Each structure stands twice: as C-alpha cells, then as structure tokens.
C-alpha cells in the first residue's frame, strides 16, 4: 500500500478555534482528514500493542503554535511515520490500525451506521445487490457477495472488489478496495460514474486449472474474459474472434476460456493513456499489466505490434513520486489533487540498468499490480498456496478511536458486521459469477529514506520517495534477452 499526506488543511472547531489537519491518501485516493493528536493517539496504542522498539519515531508535541515551516516539517514526519508502520504486516493488519483508518473515513464523511443497499457488478454488468451496514469493511462486503453467488469459500481469495469509473462503454480501473475501508463510503465519495466490480485478483493464469472445475468460478472468469476481449484489453485476431463467438453462442464457457488463455494480454488490466520516457522522452503510450509483464503499447492502433515488454523479474526496483497539482487552491480548502509518477530500474541487458519513468494518474495502481506479480512469484517459490490467508493479528487489549473533538469511542473488530445473508442477483441477460486473491504479504522490502531523483517532480511539496526492491529480480545474461 502507498500512504501519503500531500497537504494540510486549516479547520475551525465548534468554538471557532482553528487547528491544522492532515489529508491522508491511500493508494492515490483521498481517504480521510485527521489531526495530529489523533495520529498521536494511534501511535500510543500501537506502542502499547507492539512495543516501542517496533515503531519508527513519531514527531514530538509542541507547546507553541507551529510556524508554516514547522507545519510542513511535521507533515513530512507524519507521512514518513504512516508509511513505515504500514509496511509491518503485523501492524497493517491489526485491529487498532485498520479500525483507526475505517473510523477516520467514517468521521471525515460524517457517516452514521445504517443498513443500506449496495450494488456490486460482475464484468458483464450483471448486478448483485446486498443489504449491509454502511460501515462494513470490504472483506465483509466480499463475504456477502460470495454468499449471494454461492461461491465456495475456498475460492473467495481468487477474486476481489475494484472501484472502476465508466463513461458510456469506456471503463477504467481506479483501484482495488482494501479491508480498512468501507466499500459503501468509498463508492459514495468517488462520485457519479463510479461502480464496484468483481474481478479476479491473481496474475498467473495457471491457477485457473482448478478454478475452471467450479461452476461459479467458471462463470466469473468467463464473463471477465468476454468483457476484456470486447474492450480490446485482450487481443484476438479475426480467426480467433470468430471461433470465440461460436463457442460463446454454444455456451461452451470452459472451451472459451481455454482458448482465450492463449490470446495476447489475457488477464491484463489496461490503464489510461499516459506519458513515459521510453523509447523517447514524452512518448504517449497505453500500458497494460498482466502475467509477469508491464506492456507498453506504443501505437494507438490496437493491431500494431509496436510494443515493449518489461518482465517483472528484470525490474530491480521501483518507486512512486507524488506531488501536488499546480491547480490546488492556495488556502487548501479541499484535499489536494496529486501528480503521480512511477519509475522503475530495468535490466535492459547484462550489466545495463536503465531507469524508465511513467507519468500517470494510475501510477500507484501500476505499482500495486507490480507488487502483486512479485508476491505471486515469491509465493510460488516458497510453496505458499493462494487460498492461504495471512494470519490476523490477535487483540490483546481494548482500543479506541479519538475523534477530532477529543472524544473517543471503542474500536471493534466487528464494526460493520451486520449484514443480510440474502443478496439479490439481478440477471443482466447474461450469466452468474464471483471473486478475491490472498497474496503473500511482506515479501517486498521497502526502503523509505529520502533520496534525490532525476525523475522527481519539482513543483509543489513532494513526498518521501519509497524505493521498492524487487525480491523476484533475476540477473540475466545477453543470451537470455
């Protein structure tokens, strides 16, 4: 996950006293606004749970009001703290940490717990409507959807919920929802033309050998494959398309998928057009991620073979750079719009490494996809099965969430658990389906010290630039290229 605090906000409380609040972004999306004392309260509870030696330094309290330079220094220190603690999987999956993030999202949106109807779509746009708590975590929503689709519990880890935007027939994947957020609140804050969809969450198509034997999994994979081919994310030539259409007409879903698996870019996520410096500076490309590759489509013609393939095992490391857009208000009256950049160091040939830079508002999603591919490779090397989920940190105490006004309420691991067992699956003149993949966590090391970057965005305050070292990186010789 990628945490950042790109800017601050001056807020007045009920007594007209002003204070500085911090806008927290997770994976490129605004998540919540919190005060220093709220983060200090989180730090204090993490220290009691995991011990002071397990935590990075926390910026100290100040007796006097902060100057602008001190405010900026504290923002950077808080950002570094939240980035570091989120890399420890014991902390990142603990009730106190996830409960804090969920409660902060709830407070920021002034949300009250209520039972709501939430629509989740399959990739054929079939809709599943569930009745659930407005504060239900993503994992709880996923459980309800799987119950509605009658998906075997052992296969739920192969699917997940994505937030997508859709205008006419143009669909863009925005991000994968995490368990520390309310799916309902995240969808609500995203605004119109945004939807929740179920897609497979793994990259290695060899997992499908077993999944195709389950009827519900088969349907889920089938409708996604049909959708991806129709959108051009998976490329099929004329002859292949005719054969697939014939199989589709006969309802031969398994045969359809077995043929589709051999097509170019099967299972890839395609991103919006962006700008990179490969092969030349300011090159406009369309990038897709899937299998073990990042693919640069260097020509606007989908049939063009002008493509560059970047194998994940040849990416030595990568980093995300964030900065504020020039268009932000000077008074910071609203959460900042981020400018994002993904850079990765690639082994072009033996002893020749090159940095490649991508400027895209989906840079963090690309980074998450890269890490997912690396996690899968390392899991297979260590014999970890996909259905094996990381253990949840046990609670050893009672934790609380401090609100901005200083009042507190207890954090419960069961928050948002009230859920209807009956979901309504609405047939959109197509088939049924279902989803989520458990990835092995903590396999990728992050180094979070600041360093200068020739690719860094200069205008606006820039976040620390975490470097992600790829443990799946493989040295190669010229004969391997």
From TrEMBL:
Domain PX: from-to ranges: 1-108
One Gene Ontology biological process: endocytic recycling
InterPro entries per UniProt: PH-like_dom_sf, PX_dom, PX_dom_sf, SNX17-31_FERM_F1, SNX17-31_FERM_F2, SNX17/31_FERM, SNX17_FERM-like_dom, SNX17_FERM_N
Record-linked PROSITE patterns: PX (PS50195)
Keyword terms, alphabetized: Cytoplasm, Cytoplasmic vesicle, Endosome, Lipid-binding, Membrane, Protein transport, Transport
Composition skew (Polar residues), residue ranges: 408-428
Chief place where the protein resides: membrane
Chain segments carrying region Disordered: 384-481
SUPFAM superfamilies: PX domain
Annotated localization: Cytoplasmic vesicle membrane; Early endosome
GO molecular function annotation: phosphatidylinositol binding
Amino acid composition bias (Basic and acidic residues), ranges on this chain: 384-394
CDD domains: FERM-like_C_SNX17 (cd13337), FERM_F1_SNX17 (cd16121), PX_SNX17_31 (cd06885)
Gene Ontology, cellular component aspect: cytoplasmic vesicle membrane; early endosome
Membrane topology reported for the UniProt record: Peripheral membrane protein
Gene3D superfamilies listed in its UniProt record: 1.20.80.60, Phosphatidylinositol 3-kinase Catalytic Subunit, Chain A, domain 1, Phox-like domain, Pleckstrin-homology domain (PH domain)/Phosphotyrosine-binding domain (PTB)
Similarity comment: family membership: Belongs to the sorting nexin family.
Protein name per the record: PX domain-containing protein
Organism of this sequence: Larinioides sclopetarius
């Amino acid at each position: 996950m990628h945490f950042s605090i790109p800017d601050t906000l001056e807020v007045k409380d009920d007594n007209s006293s002003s204070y500085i609040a911090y806008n927290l972004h997770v994976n490129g999306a605004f998540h919540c606004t919190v005060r220093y004392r709220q983060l200090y309260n989180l730090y204090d509870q993490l220290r009691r749970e995991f011990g002071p030696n397990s935590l990075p330094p926390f910026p100290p309290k100040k007796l006097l009001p902060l100057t602008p330079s001190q405010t900026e220094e504290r923002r950077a220190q808080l950002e570094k703290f939240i980035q570091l603690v989120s890399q420890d999987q014991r902390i990142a999956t603990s009730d106190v940490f996830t409960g804090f993030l969920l409660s902060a999202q709830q407070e920021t949106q002034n949300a009250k717990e209520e039972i709501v109807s939430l629509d989740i779509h399959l990739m054929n746009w079939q809709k599943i409507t569930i009745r659930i708590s407005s504060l239900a975590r993503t994992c709880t929503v996923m459980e309800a959807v799987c119950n509605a689709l009658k998906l075997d519990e052992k296969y739920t880890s192969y699917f997940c919920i994505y937030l997508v935007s859709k205008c006419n027939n143009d669909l863009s994947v925005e991000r994968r929802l995490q368990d520390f957020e309310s799916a309902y609140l995240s969808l609500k804050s995203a605004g119109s033309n945004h939807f929740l969809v179920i897609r497979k969450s793994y990259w290695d198509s060899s997992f499908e050998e077993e999944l195709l034997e389950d009827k519900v999994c088969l349907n889920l994979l089938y409708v996604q494959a049909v959708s991806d081919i129709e959108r051009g994310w998976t490329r099929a030539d004329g002859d292949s398309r005719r054969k697939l259409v014939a199989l589709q007409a006969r309802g031969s879903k398994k045969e359809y998928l077995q043929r589709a698996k051999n097509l170019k870019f099967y299972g890839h996520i395609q991103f919006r057009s962006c700008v990179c410096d490969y092969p030349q500076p300011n090159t406009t490309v369309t990038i897709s991620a899937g299998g073990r590759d990042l693919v640069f489509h260097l020509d606007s013609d989908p049939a063009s073979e002008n493509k560059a393939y970047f194998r994940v095992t040849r990416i030595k490391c990568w980093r995300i750079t964030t900065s504020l857009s020039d268009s932000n208000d000077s008074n910071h009256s609203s959460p900042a719009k981020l400018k994002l950049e993904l850079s990765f160091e690639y082994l072009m040939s033996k002893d020749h490494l090159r940095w490649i830079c991508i400027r895209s508002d989906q840079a963090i999603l690309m980074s998450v996809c890269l890490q997912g591919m690396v996690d899968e490779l390392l899991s297979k090397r260590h014999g970890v099965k996909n259905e094996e989920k990381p253990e949840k940190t046990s609670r050893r105490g009672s934790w609380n969430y401090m609100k901005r006004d200083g009042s507190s309420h207890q954090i419960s691991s069961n928050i948002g658990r009230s859920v209807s067992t009956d979901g309504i699956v609405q047939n959109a003149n197509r088939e049924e389906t279902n989803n989520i993949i458990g990835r092995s966590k903590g396999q990728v090391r992050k180094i979070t010290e600041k360093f200068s970057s020739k690719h860094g965005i200069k205008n606006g305050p820039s976040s620390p630039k975490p470097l992600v070292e790829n443990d799946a990186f493989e040295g190669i010789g010229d004969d391997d290229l």
